[in-house]
């Protein structure tokens, strides 16, 4: 059975180089990698090379729930593309495309089978929207 793919995107008012740095650098990941203000990302580690590992911890600020997010990089082109496999075997591809003075960030991920598709899409999109806001407000 072929996996269902979900696409999310955002246009970030920064160059691909700045967007890439904020997307891949653990010191930045902890500042944007959550879907709402009642969550946070207290820890992240990232080694963006083929075969390298990605790890982040997402938790509700009230301590009621949390989970680890782990992946291994399968392919990447700095400032352009990341492809990784999640711990459960699902694939994720994120593209960074320069469009004028902005960067179009598009992520395609394979849906899991425990939550409704719309919930998954909304959650991933909320995190990407938080990323956009963080990058546009951050002082690199």
Automatic annotation (TrEMBL):
Source organism superkingdom: Bacteria
Protein name per its UniProtKB record: Activator of HSP90 ATPase
Record organism: Flavobacterium piscinae
Family: Belongs to the AHA1 family.
SUPFAM superfamilies: Bet v1-like
Matches recorded under InterPro entries: ASHA1/2-like_C, START-like_dom_sf
Activator of Hsp90 ATPase homologue 1/2-like C-terminal domain sequence ranges: 15-136
